[in-house]
Design a protein that fits this description.
Length: about 70
Amino acid sequence: MALTATELARRILLLHGLAEEARVVAAAMRDLTCRRMMLTIAASYERMAEHLEIAQDHLSLPITPSPRLCP
């Protein structure tokens, strides 16, 4: 099953939202190691969103959904 443009856009927004949520959680943390780890997670979500944005612009092949990103 290929992703439609709407589904792909929704996943991009979801990943950006998860990144923002991780940054908010990190800001509330007092332990520097934990805060750094949460910010790393946020950066990973942003990178995944960026990869999907590139795919959205450049791929003509259908993208198969990942079960981990299918809410």
